Amino acid sequence: MSHPKWSRRRAIKAAIGAGVAMPALLRARSALAAYPERPVKIVVANTPGGPSDITGRIVAAALQQSTGKNFIIENIGGAGGNIGMGNAARAEPDGYTILLATNAYSINASLYSKTPYDAHHDFVGVSELATSPNTFVVRSELPAKTIKEFIALAKAEPDKFNVATPPIGTSPQIQAEVLKLRAGLPKLAGIVYKGGGDAIQSLISGTTQLSSGSLPPAAPHIKAGLLRCLAVTGEARWPDLPDVPTMQEEGFKDFVFATDMVLLAPAKTPPDIVKWLEAETLKILSTPEMKDKLYKAGFLVRPKGADAAWARVTKEIDTFKGIIEQAGIQKL
Questions:
Q1: Before 48, cis peptide (omega within 30)?
Q2: Over the stretch 226-278, which tens digit does the pLDDT of each residue have?
Q3: CB distance 121 to 107 below 8 Å
Q4: CA-to-CA distance for 130 and 170, rounded, in angstroms?
Q5: Is the overall model pTM greater than 0.85, yes or no?
Q6: The domain 34-132+259-327 belongs to what CATH superfamily?
Q7: What is the pLDDT of residues 86-96, one digit of tens each?
Q8: C-alpha atoms less than 13 angstroms from C-alpha of 294 in its C-beta half-sphere
C-alpha cells in the first residue's frame, strides 16, 4: 500500500498535468469539430475553363453539397502555375486554403531554375481526384485525319502551322515539345496560353492549327464536330473516342502523357484536418453520380488517399526530370 503523502503528490502532479494539457487538447478538438467555420478556398493555379478548373468546380460543388460547408475556387494563373502554387504554399496552414495541382507541380520542380514553392516539403497529400488523357486536336476542316498526316502537312509548309498549349510546365506543353523533337518539326511554333480553355479557343478561332491539351476542354467541341481528335496520349484509347488511336499505336513508342489532378494542403496543416478533407473527398469521389459527371467531362475518377497522392506526385518529379533532360528542354 502506497504512502498517503506520495499518493497526494501524484494526484496533484496529475491534476496539474491535466490542467495544462486539457485546454490545448479541447481547443484542438473543438477546432476540428467546428471546421470548417468559413469557406475553404481551393486554389487552381490556372485560368478558368481548363482541366484543373473544370475538376475543381465539380469537386467543390460536390463537397459543398455533401458536407453542408462552403468550398470556393480561386483561380490564380500565371508563370506556368507557379504563382498560384506559391500563393498556396505561403497560405496559413489552417485548412482554409488547399491546392488543386496538376502534373505541373512536379514538372516545374525540374523545368524552372527556381520555384516559389519547395516541391518536396511545402505540401502534403490530401487525395487524388481524377485523370484525363492528353490529346492532339485540329479543326475539322483541316485535311489531316491522323497525327502522321498533320506532321506531313507541317513539314510541307512549316511557316503555316503552330501548336497551342496550356502554360509552360504542363504535361500538354511538354508533350508538344517532345512531338516537335521526335517528329522533326523544329519550326512548329509553340503558342503558350494561360490555360487549357484559352488554348482551345485559339484553335476554334483559327489563331492556331494544332492543340496539345488535355481532353476535357476539347471534348464538347469534338462531340459537336467542330474539332477533330487526331490522337490521344493515354496508355489506351478513350472509351468515348473509340476510333481515335493512341500515339503509341501511331508508332510513337512510350509517348504517354496525361493530366492528373490532386489535392494538396500546406505542409503544417493539422493532420486531423487533412484527414477530414481526405475522407470527405474520397466519399464524394466514390459516388456513381460523381464518376459519371467527371467521365462526361473527360476524366476518369482516381479515388486514392493522401499517401498514394503524395507518392505519385513525388515520383513524377523524377520522371519528368528525365523526360525534360532527354528531350533537351532548356530550364527556365
A1: no
A2: 999 999 998 889 988 999 999 999 999 989 898 899 999 999 999 999 999 99
A3: no
A4: 16
A5: no
A6: Bordetella uptake gene, domain 1 (3.40.190.150)
A7: 999 999 999 99
A8: 30
